[in-house]
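The methods section describes the discrete structure representation at length, but only in general terms. The central task, working out the structure tokens from the amino acid sequence alone, is never made concrete. Nothing conveys this as quickly as seeing an actual entry. For illustration, here is how one protein appears when written out as sequence plus structure tokens:
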Amino acid sequence: MAPTTPTESVTTLRARALEVLCTQHVADKCAQAQQLALEALRPGVPWGEQAELEPPHGQLPGRPERPELIDPAQVPTRSPFTPEGRAALLHAICHIEFNAINLALDAVWRFAGMPQAFYADWLRVAGEEAQHFEMLHTLLQELRGPSGERWQYGSFAAHDGLWAMCEKTAHDRTARMALVPRTLEARGLDATPLIQAKLRKVNTPDALAMCDALDTILRDEIGHVAVGNRWYGWLCQQNGLEPVAHYRSLAREFQAPRLRPPFNTEARKRAGFSDDELAYLLGTG
């Protein structure tokens, strides 16, 4: 089948997901991602499951000029016990959520021939990630810099580790499900309670508001990681692969970061990790 450009099949949700992925303006991307998630609930909506889409020329994903993207090792560490440190922390989580919108949209347009439920799942995820970004960005904009300036997305440098793994797994949908949602994004399940504990020690109104926002995000992210687990398991079953053994192989092949404890085992279980997978993470299996 010849590649189809987004303009040729603009009415299909997969083609529109590609258009939203290419959108550079942050507010527009968030609004459009949430609209697509709503449209995915309509009966009879055209998905274009079999279309092999071709992205337009230019950078994927669409993103604003800022934040500046730097090597992960160069991103400075700041204490949440200072206003600027809390702003930097909020900005870092905003950046993760912005990338998560793009990761979900990329799964929708890139991988043809999947069941409609796969695309519906990832459009729902994209919409919820957009809500997370907006919630956190509002909190970020309520903070003020040392001269009274308003912080916003782009005020701090960030790294591109999440999208880098997205590009590495662009040719392998099983690797994508294994190494993006259920590896890199699942790290948030482990990190969130630790971040919240620090913010509760800060005990300022803005820090406690961040804690409340992270409660919502953690609840939703358990569901998002569960989506990755479900489709990774489905793909392994379709291809006669043993999930834990194949994960080990993929982690080596794609040089996935070695995950380190402590692990939020309760959240990971709720997200669908098996006892064998948790044993592998803990080094006991």
Remarks:
- Residues 68-282 form a domain with the Ferritin fold (CATH 1.20.1260).
- Residues 236 and 243 are 6 Å apart (CA to CA).
- The chain has eleven helices and no strands.
